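Open question from group meeting: does this chain pack into something compact, or does most of it stay loose? Before anyone orders reagents, we agreed to write out a predicted structure and look at it together. Recording both the input and the output here so the notebook holds the full record.
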Amino acid sequence: MGLTAEIGTFLADMQRCALPPEALAPVRAGFTDCVAVMVAGRDEPVSRIVAASVGAKVCSDRVLLDLVDAPAAALVYGTAAHAIDYDDTGLSGHPSAVLVPAILAESVESGGASGQTMARAYIAGYEVWAELIGRDKDQHHLKGWHPTAVFGTVAAASASAVIRGLDADRAATAAGISASLAGGIVANFGTMTKPFQVGRAAQSGLQATRLAEAGFTASHDAFEHDLGFLRAISPNRAVDTENPAAFGREWRILQHGVNIKLYPICYGAHRIVDAMIDVVQRDALRADGIAGVNVEMGEASAAILRNHRPQSALDAKFSAEFAMAAAAIAGRCGMRELTNEFVLRRDVQAFMPKVAVTPLTERSVDEPLHSPFDRVRITLRDNRAVASEPVYYPRGHFKNPVDAEALWGKFADCIDGAPIDARRLFDVLQEVDHLASVADIDTQGARS
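Structure tokens returned:
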């Protein structure tokens, strides 16, 4: 059996197979975090433009949309979820920002899928994404691909296939169709098109399953063929298309989980923000006493953080220089710092030229997109030199997790200002797999 057929069989089996109980923790975290950033991001200009383009009306006191079809809703949800770049990470991308929007939209249109079905769909999409990206040791970002938009399209189709109950043949077809709909480029990072790529991935996945269900055809070797998906997107075409999939033998969600972002900037900068905040606090440093900063970080992260003198909050999300300025000057890098006013402050603009980046070529075994660790070295005006400890995992990472109260703090910050009962919604999402229906997110959670 080829890889495409294996995907179809796995998705059909996911509707009834036994799941490891430990897999539900990252599912709950993913839903909770994604809904928070989705609400926070839905008033961003990119979200408003995309919603208007499909005739969607966002209600401030609700999470879920109605009066639009599921693919359109997934587009709106996914764009909003990634609009402020605060959503969780994993698998060299942002799994929940694609999976949760696709699942919410599909679950509403299917007549109210249960929390258990939604959890199965999330795990299915995650496992397919992990299987595919794990077959290539080279970095798709460095080829110019946006992995969330590429692998996320197939993951969204996979999640949708589980909710819609497609058999193995049609699930494989849906995956094959989604392979031809996948796409998104790194050059559009720092623009509205980046979150749009994520929304499109969710939308396209749902379109693929509808076409397959209606009898549309696609190759059942779309992934493993020499001219198929995996080799087409591979940076060096050095990709495994022969070995059988690990579906059901290994659960990648238990190995990698999801990483909660504590800063609304590119995840490639999170370790250096932790490093700068820690060393500033440890040595009681003042920003005006810093003469220079050398950032040691992985070459892929350094390439993605392409904006060296940002002039807007959107540009600043992809700037190592801004990340260091915010951490040194404000002692944090949160929503208050990600404003045009803060970015354009004279002291922030004056600090950024002090920052130099040294790319590291060595790669982490756990996460090849990153170096084994990042570190910050600081030269002070009095000629002293200090350095942070190496940071292997940023705070919020699956291997350096935050507790429920820290997650609640981020959730409350994101929901702040919306006419939603944030605590009730948080509690509902923390038990999302127990919901009788997706509608309970609004009826039991969002509305006070």
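Observations to bring back to the group:
The chain has a mean pLDDT of 95.
The domain at 267-387 is CATH 3.30.1330.120 (60s Ribosomal Protein L30; Chain: A;).
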